[in-house]
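Q: Can someone sanity-check these two? First one:
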Amino acid sequence: MASVLILMGSQSDWPTMRNAASMLEDLGVSWEARVVSAHRTPDLLEASMREAEQGDVRVVIAGAGGAAHLPGMLAAFTHLPVFGVPVQSRTLKGLDSLLSIVQMPKGVAVGTLAIGEAGAANAGLLAAQVIGTTEASVADAVKQFRAQQRDKVMQNSNLEL
């Protein structure tokens, strides 16, 4: 099993969640993605967390829209860090998802990222940073990524406006 498990409530969440996968790939972190619904497949959700804990998974990234119960339910079944990505919804533009994920009860932690693609990419980056605390090659990749980000800004810092 991979270092990071990316779970989403439905296949339609993949266009958002693939941004987490891309970031992880860029940073040299192995990942696996699956569809697990908190409401339609709760038994699969629990089994996925048991399997993750018994395997090499170090971080779980969960994307969900609407009621967005998936990240919280996953966190209830594991000691692994869970990062929640609110997937943009049609009705409330992802605000419903954000509020659902961020309002976890005391004692069940879910790290919540921004709504949509940026949140998914940052979830991948944050997962890599966690893994980088014990894997030097990943820490080096994160540092290199940060340096590239800085260099891009510096290249444009002397523009005449």
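And here is the second, same format, sequence then tokens:
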Amino acid sequence: MLAAGDVIIMDNLGSYKGQAIRNCRTGLLFLPPYSPDFNPID
């Protein structure tokens, strides 16, 4: 269960950035956009 003051780390899916998500009482941190420069497999 999440409590006020918890931090959630999320990817950049557009549906995660809606108003309902932003109104929660937790901290939201979004991962940086994907870059192939940071992925040695690509």
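A (reply): Looked at the second one. The radius of gyration is 13 Å. The first strand starts at residue 7 and ends at 10.
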